[in-house]
Write the structure tokens for this entry.
Amino acid sequence: MSEGPSILLESARTYLSRGYAVIPVPARKKIPVLKGWTDLRLSESDLPAHFNGTGNIGVLLGEPSGWLIDVDLDCDEAVALAPKFLPPTGATSGRPGKPASHWWYVCEGIKTRKHQDPVSKKMIVELRSTGAQTVVGPSIHPSGEPYDPLDGEPAVVDAGELDAAVAALADAVTEARHGRRERPCSQPVALGTPTFLADNAVVRRAAAYLDRIPPAISGSGGHSQTYAAATAMVHGFGLDPETAFSLLWDRYNSRCQPPWSEKELRHKVSDAASKPHERPYGWLRDSGHAEAADVDLSGLLVRSRAPVNDAISPPGPDDPGLLPPEALRVPGFVGEVMDYCLATAPYPSQTLAFCGALALQAFLAGRKVRDPGDNRTNIYLLGLAHSSSGKDWPRKINARVLHAVGLGTGLGDRLASGEGVQDALHGTPSMLFQTDEIDGLLQSINRARDARFESIMGTLLTMYSASNSIFPMRRKAGQNEPGVINQPCLVLFGTAIPNHYYAALSERMLTNGLFARMLILESGPRGAGQEPTVSDLPERVLATAKWWSDLRPGPGNLANAHPTPRVVPHTDEARALLVELRKDAEQAYGEAEGRRDAVATTVWGRTSEQTRKLALLYAVSENHEEPAIGVEAVRWASRLVMHQTKRMLFMAANHAAETPFDELALRAIRKIREAPDGSLPHSVLLKRMKMDSRSFHDLIDTLVQRGDVLAESASTSGRAALIYRLAEKEGEGRVKEEGAKCGL
């Protein structure tokens, strides 16, 4: 034998390092002789004592080796047919005289199952699990041939899928050897309805009918297709469950991809026999001979649990794309701060520069100006950009400006708790919070049970609405009067990674108003870098900021605690345009209300208010000393708000998830949409989803039945393959409802 003790020992160590339990087997033998070998668990320090000669190496299968499973192909026909039936795997082995005769998988919970030839009783294929072992290379077969080493990565598969695939392979070998077997049927079971013996004309007609039914394909409505076939047998032809099962097992199951296990198929038959049906009992049996054109299962297929009119529901929101650059320009102070930021940033981003400058203007004008409708400048801005794209540069500029004019105490960086935000505003009624990775905060609110995270969201909602009124402070122990905050101005400038932010949103956040209160701007791809420069802040910027800092609207020395903000007037044209825009938003709100779209109603309900806030900011930026809201300010604000409303609704529909099913469904749809040609093969999508095969099949089945995804057959390298693509009208709006009903 060519391999020495050192090679044997090193191989045993390699297998052990991969999590496989190894046992010693005598040289040129296949069966271990150690007593209690099934319970033997060797550590690395034990290996030299057992692999010190010229023996063989066995690997314990099933639970001891992390559910490593060996599908042992015991005949040439099984080896030849295996690629057509077994799930693909990265680990196969054998020996020169019998290559690729062992297919390796990781399959939790599966049991050993042997499949023998019904005539010769010789083994066809054996699914080997806990309690069994397989000899692997560099061992030597009794014939003198070397075994292949167990290399590669075994595929992780579902137990039901692998069990059914191995059974189908064994049936295919049996059929190739002996032809299709006709199974004798048992005596009909008394179900309270007439049944028929297996050799009568009705059974032959049922068999012919079954042969023309398309097979069930996983991911393409396979569950519904098989249930429909079972219904045709037990209810349409009036066959007893055992006869129906025998026909389905012999004539239908082998064509399914993958085949059903015996237990699963019997369950389908039992369901079909016990549930009520729309058509009369025996309608196929009593209709005469069923021709090919008569094979129509549309009336039997399981319908989506969504309402019928969902099938023609409108598609999800269209994507308006990123905001055009010209919409990110405001004359005056905002534009000057933007220009300085773009000239000095290592990676200039017009979107981030705009967000930072607008947030700075909103803070400076907070509690000092208002429009005729008493709208204030407090806004929540969120700039979305990928990592290392310069999200911190606008924040640094804002901090420099505010410290230079004596307003540094109005800066906050983290939203640690709702109470903390309230206390900060009680001391400084106008504050600018600049925080990064706001998506992490939203995830914490979603997942944590700590009440402080809930209080953050509650405070953000309340402070936004209290900007033109009084916010009562909470009562503390030992404090007679809790106090109030008169007209608090909380400006939020947050940054986050785009997809992470939308995925962090929940249904409750989308509908309780937090999402609608935010103006969310995406920066797109990072631009070309430039050498950063150290330069003084522009004098005009500092002068304007100082002017705002010194402004004290209101009488006497109470202006800071109880200000009377200046009213910035509208022009007549601007007022008329605002009324028109309000009516447009109300119409969109009504349409969303008619669709019962809670997210859209929440967002459209804030559109008019957001437009008026931005028009006010445009006016005070353009002329801080004598501002007036003109038609250009309203047009700019409405264009920005309308675009961002549509963009926010589109991104929320494609990213925000409430249930685990919701998240998986949206992720699958996104991955198909983002594929170069808008389609993905079954195996590729399964890998990208990082799911086990059974859960993946259930997910795809639901999406196919609901009309979101199309499953199409294609041929690759001579083998049939499934391709998934999106339907023309995606029913993504139904994801949450369907997921909740499915219990996923």
Remarks:
- The domain at 5-178 is CATH 3.30.2250 (Prim-pol fold).
- The chain has four domains: 5-178, 201-302, 325-524+551-655, 660-742.
